[in-house]
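Attaching the record inline, Q. Sequence:
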Amino acid sequence: MTYQYSNLREHLRILEERDLLCRIKREVNNPPASCGVFSLNLYKAIEINPDIAVAYYTRGITHFNRKDYKLAIADLSKAIEIDPQNAEAYYKRGITYRSKAEYDPAIADFTETIKLKPKDANVYRERGIAYWNKRKFNSAISDLTKAIELEPNSSAAYYRRGIVYRDNRKYELSIADFQRVTALTKDPELVRTVTEEIKHLGGQGGK
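Structure, as predicted:
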């Protein structure tokens, strides 16, 4: 009988977590008009069940959006501690570290994300940007090329790789990537930006 009671308690715990998760997801998709109310609800959710990773993750995103990076990292780290397979928490913590110009931990988090989601082009792109921030051009180009391989129509990845090629003085390759951006994007501002880059690099490349 004790075994059956233990199973019942576990079943009730799972149902409670599922209900809490559904409530949090509803608020993420339809947040209250007051961000403060939303944050208060997240604190309440964590108070109700301090071992559910999605609550810490969601509160971490709220902190990130407010540019409170220290608190964001603390909550995202807690989400990872509870759920080490939480790829989104690693990814968002990597973005947070990079926003603080802490590129080594950002790269480490993107690497963990790639282990969990090896087919996600966005993660390769973001890690490539972090490598570029560290002036590790070869690693940046490798990651951005992988992002393009996974998502061939990504104007963002071509644009970023073009920037890396430019800074690495590989002007012809940079121009080719920027030209590819103009063929892929519908963003007029981005088209103007890369068109100016092409004109500028054309002059440099001829020297």
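The CA atoms of residues 97 and 105 lie 7 Å apart. DSSP finds eleven helices and no strands in the chain.

More tomorrow.
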